[in-house]
Design goal:
Layout (H helix, E strand, L loop, with lengths): L12 E8 L4 H5 L12 H17 L5 E4 L3 H14 L3 E3 L16 H7 L1 H9 L11 H13 L4 E8 L1 H11 L18 E7 L2 E9 L57 H8 L24
Parallel strand pairs: 1-4, 2-3, 2-4
Antiparallel strand pairs: 1-5, 5-6
Helix pairs in contact: 2-3, 4-5, 6-7
């Protein structure tokens, strides 16, 4: 029987938070930890404090805080237990997936020296020849730890990346063929599940106190874009202020010039041709004794 088929129905626990521990130096260097026990580094302790403060503001009274017995998970869980004022329950069945011969090696070491095993691990298949624990056995022990909890509105299970992933898959009824549908939990990130009817539902995955995705750095500050002031809109005629009119001046005392009567076109033509109003005369004298009229 698979671990997915053994997922229990837990009406006494309404919500479950599967919370991964803070960062260690081995996490930062990409080294497989398994059931070895490196402590939190300075970054991991700061992550635990921020996450505990954020969770304490939203968790109700009566929340259970249950931790793996490995020190990196226990120290992470203790920050939340102190913030809530509740005792910490230590549960060895929540410890990390045993990785056999990989424990203490980096990913580069495994990919270089054991490429076939590394390929199985990347694809989510059972890793042949590595030793350690079977993923189904990890899911079974985590489920049994959850089923033995007393009634509570919320249970926070402080565990590890491998064990937390197998537990979430088992609660959702996912078999080995659906392994790694959900991305791995980042350090001090959690998955929240709610029990509804006879099934579990994912409410949040890879949530954190900062809201960022695991492994992502904060985006660098962008250069401010220079913006020119917008030209003010032309005011409408209604919105323009009404200016007072100038007071009327004194009446005019100088007489107006008489209006000039326009010259008729025919008169203009006669003037151009050298004639007059009485009649048109020749422009050139007709003989030696004749004097042109109007000349002299």
């Amino acid at each position: 029987m698979s671990a997915a088929a053994e997922a229990p129905t837990l009406p006494t626990v309404e919500r479950v938070l599967v919370w991964r521990h803070g960062r260690t130096e081995w996490n930062a260097s990409g080294r497989f930890q398994g059931q070895l026990d490196p402590p939190l580094d300075d970054t991991g302790r700061a992550q635990a404090r921020r996450a505990a403060d954020a969770l304490a503001r939203e968790l109700p009274a009566g929340t259970l805080v249950v931790s793996s017995d490995l020190v990196r998970a226990r120290d992470t869980a203790q920050t939340l237990a102190d913030a809530l004022g509740t005792p910490l329950r230590v549960e060895p069945r929540l410890r990390e997936h045993g990785l056999g011969s990989w424990e203490g090696l980096t990913r580069e070491d495994v990919a270089r020296d054991l490429p076939e095993q590394y390929a199985d691990w990347v694809e989510g298949r059972p890793v042949r020849g590595r030793g350690g624990e079977d993923p189904a056995a990890v899911a079974r022990r985590a489920l049994s730890a959850l089923s033995d909890l007393p009634p509570a509105p919320v249970a926070v299970l402080v565990t590890h990346g491998g064990t937390g992933g197998r537990l979430v898959e088992a609660l959702l009824g996912l078999g080995p063929e659906h392994r790694r549908i959900f991305g791995p939990l980042g350090n001090c990130h959690w998955t929240e599940l709610a029990h509804q009817g006879s099934r579990w539902r994912v409410l949040r995955h890879n949530a954190s106190a900062t809201g960022g995705a695991p492994g992502c750095r904060a985006a660098p500050a962008r250069r401010p874009v220079r913006t020119w002031p917008r030209r003010p809109a032309w005011p409408s005629r209604r919105s323009r202020p009404v200016l007072p009119r100038c007071p009327p001046g004194p009446p005019r005392t100088t007489p107006r010039r008489p209006r000039r009567t326009p010259t008729p076109p025919s008169e203009l033509l006669l003037r151009c041709l050298g004639g007059c109003r009485s009649g048109l005369t020749s422009r050139f004298p007709s003989g030696p004794g004749e004097v042109r009229r109007g000349s002299g």
